Amino acid sequence: MGNKRRNDSNFLVQGSILAIASVISRIIGMIYRFPLTRIIGDVGNDYMSAAMEVYSILLLISSYGLPLAVSKLVSTRVAKGERKNAYRIFKVALVFAFLSGTVAACFLYFGAGWVAGLLKTPLSIFALQVLAPTLLVVAVLGVFRGFFQGLGTMMPSALSQLLEQVVNAIVSIWVAYMLCRYGARIGAVLGNTDTYGSAYGAAGSSVGTGAGAVFALLFVLLVFAVYMPVYKKQMRRDTYSRRESCGEVFRILVLTIIPVLLSTTIYNISSILDMGVFKYLADYQGYEEAAYSTMWGVFAGKFKTLSNVPVALASALAASSVPSVATAFASRNLRLVKERIHSVFYFIMVIAFPCAVGMGVLALPLMNLMYPPRTEAIQSSNELAALLLQVGAPSIVFYSLSTVSNAILQGINRMKKPVMNGLIALVLHLALLAVLMLGADLNIYAVAIANVCFSILMCLLNGFSIWRAIRYRQEVKKTFVIPGISSAFMGAAVYGCYEGVMKLMHSNLIATLLAVVVGVIVYFVLLFLLKGMETADLKGFPGGRFLKKIMRKLHLLRS
Question: What region, left, alpha or beta, does residue 152 occupy, with left being phi > 0 and alpha being psi -120 to 50 degrees?
Answer without folding.
Answer: left
